[in-house]
Write a structure and sequence with these properties.
The chain is an alpha+beta fold. It has helices at about 1-25, 30-35, and strands at about 40-50, 60-65, 70-80, 85-95, 100-105, 115-125, 130-140, 140-155. A hairpin with a 4-residue loop joins strand 4 (about 85-95) and strand 5.
Length: about 160
Amino acid sequence: MQKLRAVLAASTVSVAAVAGMVATAPTASAATSLCGSSYGYVGKHAMTKVSGKEGPRTGGYVYVYYSAKTKKNCAISKPVPQLRGKAWGLGVGLHSPTYKDGGSDGYARGQVYTRWAGPVYVKSPHACITVTGDMNTGTPGHLRAHYEVLKKGVHCG
């Protein structure tokens, strides 16, 4: 009986440890589910601080995905874990100069996103795209820092 209790206790600890890892580990499927199941990760671009003195140099990332099925790229902007709950005004955009197509999210009146912006999509088979994103920290009346990214001619397929 003593041996059985020891095995059960060890199993419980192992299950708890695995559950903790699963609960805290970031997954690609969590982000791709925002774009759709046919989208695969192609890269990320850092939103770096352009003004303000507080906070880290990198405030967040624009994550880019592509679907061969839809022939579109998808993007989502998210703050780094350190700034979750402190970020606001998240925005994201994609543009395809070749197809004269694009989309953005987070820039319209009333869109003051705090957890993520997107998904946005752009038709882009065999073409380069432009990726944009930005965010703020602090509060709307007391801006602490502003972060941006603009990458032209990337993810050429």
